[in-house]
From TrEMBL:
This is Tesmin/TSO1-like CXC domain-containing protein. It comes from Littorina saxatilis.
Length: 676
């Protein structure tokens, strides 16, 4: 029998495996048995480095099995024996029960998810959790095959064909986004530290320049000292404020203080607010949440009213509010179906726009199944759903993104047949918009059920509109936007109460607010002048300065204010005004129109960067780059030519410059100035 046929004979007779125990199905390959012998004599570090040392590897292969045999015989001579079990550990009842439970759970998940080959969705879903993978991760995984083929071609070309690289050269890591990867946000502390270093360097330059050039530095305060205005920005983001402080200024104007629910004809619900209030509790799936938690709340709300409107937010990827939503935190994307298990972290689930979009659509459909003879109207994206035939001419299609403004569309539609309305919300913006609408419709009565828990109360909106007067109530949204809302920065250290008191003391700005509340396409010089004066009074109510740049210089040099506690520069304030007009005039000024026409945000203080809208802070560069007095040169010889920035600007060199003979430079510059 030759070698080949002998090997075949041994192979066919299963002589390529070894059975070391009496357990069934426990045979293993000969090379694996050899590895078991090697494991006996391996140290704590294993057999590191053997493959790189041929002589050591040969000694290991020859001596390893013999050492293992000697150790085994020595243990046997000591009488150390173990009662060998004939059953494998996976045959034990505990293991079998765990395995059965795992299979049952996998089957349940697959049944809940359905047949993925019958779905037309392009979303990438993890079966065990029903979470939807982030879009960036999905694109990354889709490109793996293409990237692998490309790198294979490069590997063959560089190492085998052109041989520009060695076979041992490392392959560059791709750093692909994977399912378990998380987005890391920039730490605010590092951002603040960089700004602090920038401020220290800037003011040291300013000190040197004042000593050497004796300039007034009048233009210094027309520029911001940082990349983003510290009076309007917090770590590069919009600076937030406590919007509810405005209600403390408005509520004293109420004539009637309502303690119990008023008798109304129409109830309007902010759907997102209701969902945030209604925790799942014992509900395990989204189906039971809809039937056992949400539906009973709707049934209770229908008592005593003739019509119920449920208005939901719409979440768009190109929204100017995306920055404000990012500050609320992140969560996991999850598919919403009747059988999907509700995540344990309800608040985290509601932080994801995609989750809320699916949940709101699911609840909007489910609410129509509630048996009632009363009219229920709910939104689903741009369309309207109702349990009875209605005229939708003034309701849909609707392009409003926020439920705040869309509630006003439904209120105006309901005013055709009804006169008394109640709005359930937790957002100050809704109260502000309702006051403005009540001033234009004095024949209707509006109440707002505001807040939760101990802060819950009823606000009589028509009383507030009457107490403010038609003029002030009408422009209240513009005042609210200008002093800080979700898409417009607040001024550092200036609360809504402070701004309210200044508005009362400076009524001249009311006409400007009123004009800007209506959709406009220009911000006139007179508007800018009045708004600059208003902002100046916000920071110093006794100031005589008419413009913010003068006020900045006065407050910083005369009163010792910190740089973030002085008004923004004129150009930064202008961009702030544009954002306020876009929100208060174009968006909030068209709340009664279902499909308003909005201008491009690029023209109103925004810029589109990295697939999202971010504030455009100012057209000017930082003071260290733009301010004339802070110029410095890098000359290595006395500065006597126009190649020198200082000489060209008719300025003497300072200690900031790198030239070695400042006296000659200063004399040369002085001589040049005299001859000129």
């Amino acid at each position: 029998m030759n070698g080949d046929s002998g090997c075949l004979y041994e192979f066919m007779n299963a002589h390529f495996v070894l059975q070391k125990t009496k357990r069934p199905f426990s045979k293993l390959a000969l090379d694996q048995a050899h590895e078991q012998n090697n494991a006996i004599i391996k140290g704590e570090g294993g057999a590191v480095g053997l493959t790189e040392n041929p002589s050591a590897l040969r000694r290991w292969l020859i001596g390893g099995p013999e050492i293992a045999r000697v150790i085994a015989e020595f243990e046997s001579s000591l009488g150390r024996t173990w009662a060998e079990s004939e059953t494998h550990h996976e045959q034990r009842p505990g293991f079998q029960e765990d395995f059965k439970n795992g299979v049952s759970e996998l089957v349940r998940v697959i049944q809940e998810a359905g047949n993925p080959f019958q779905e037309r969705s392009t979303e990438f879903v993890t079966l065990h959790s029903n979470n939807i993978v982030d879009t960036a991760v999905h694109k990354s995984l889709q490109s793996l095959h293409e990237l692998g083929c490309k790198q294979y071609q490069e590997f063959v070309s560089e190492r085998l064909i052109t041989q520009t690289k060695k076979m041992s050269d490392p392959i560059t890591r791709n750093n692909m986004l994977m399912i378990s990867g998380a987005k890391r946000k920039r730490k605010s502390t590092s951002y603040r530290l960089s700004n602090l270093k920038s401020d220290c360097r800037l003011f040291s330059w300013l000190y040197i320049a004042c000593q050497m050039r004796r300039g007034g530095l009048d233009n210094f305060f027309t520029y911001e000292n940082q990349r983003t205005p510290p009076s309007l920005s917090c770590d590069g983001m919009l600076r937030t404020t406590t919007k509810s402080d405005l209600l403390q200024c408005l509520e004293p104007l109420q004539i009637e203080h309502v303690e119990t629910a008023p008798d109304v004809d129409v109830l309007l619900l902010d759907g997102a607010a209701v969902v945030n209030m209604l925790r799942p509790g014992p509900a395990r799936t989204f189906g039971t949440y809809a039937t056992d938690v949400f539906a009973p709340y709707i049934v209770r709300s229908l008592q005593g009213v003739k019509r119920l409107d449920i208005v939901w937010d719409v979440y768009r990827p190109d929204s100017v509010k995306s920055m404000a939503r990012e500050n609320r935190g992140v969560g996991k994307r999850k598919r919403v179906t009747a059988a999907t298990v509700i995540p344990s972290n309800w608040a985290g689930f509601l932080r994801v726009d995609g989750n809320k979009t699916q949940l709101f659509s699911f609840l909007a459909q489910s609410v129509l199944a509630i048996p009632t003879d009363k009219l229920i109207v709910t939104t689903q994206g741009p369309i309207i759903l109702a349990n009875q035939p209605i005229d939708q001419t003034d309701l849909a299609p609707c392009s409003h993104e926020e439920a705040d403004t869309r509630l006003m569309v439904h209120l105006v539609d309901g005013a055709k047949d009804h006169k008394r309305f109640l709005i359930r919300t937790v957002d100050t913006d809704v109260v502000v918009l309702a006051v403005s609408l009540a001033s234009r419709h004095p024949d209707i009565e509006i109440w707002v059920a505001m807040g939760t828990g101990k802060a819950f109360r009823y606000i009589t909106v028509h009383d507030l509109a009457c107490g403010l007067g038609a003029e002030k109530a009408g422009c209240l949204p513009m005042f609210h936007a200008f002093t800080g809302c979700d898409t417009v920065s607040a001024f550092t250290g200036i609360s809504k109460k402070t701004a309210w008191e200044i508005w009362r003391a400076f009524p001249e700005v009311t006409n400007t607010f009123q004009r800007l509340t209506c959709p406009t396409f220009e911000l006139t010089d007179s508007d800018r002048a009045l708004l600059e004066r208003f902002v100046t009074l916000l920071y110093d109510k006794m100031s005589n300065c008419q413009d913010v740049n003068t006020a900045r210089q006065h407050l910083f040099t005369k009163t010792g204010r910190q740089i973030e506690n002085i008004p923004p520069s004129s150009e930064a304030l202008y961009q702030h005004c544009l954002r306020a007009v876009y929100q208060g005039g174009h968006i909030w000024g068209q709340t009664e129109i279902p499909d308003p026409v909005l201008p491009n945000p690029c023209e109103w203080g925004w810029q589109f960067v990295d697939d999202r809208w971010v504030p455009f802070w100012t057209v000017h560069s930082e003071a260290s780059v733009t301010c004339r007095e802070l110029l410095k040169c890098g000359c290595k010889k006395p500065c006597k030519t126009k190649r020198c920035r200082c000489f060209k600007s008719d300025l003497s060199c300072t200690a900031l410059c790198t030239c070695t003979c400042l006296e000659n430079c200063a004399k040369a510059t002085t001589t040049s100035s005299s001859s000129a």
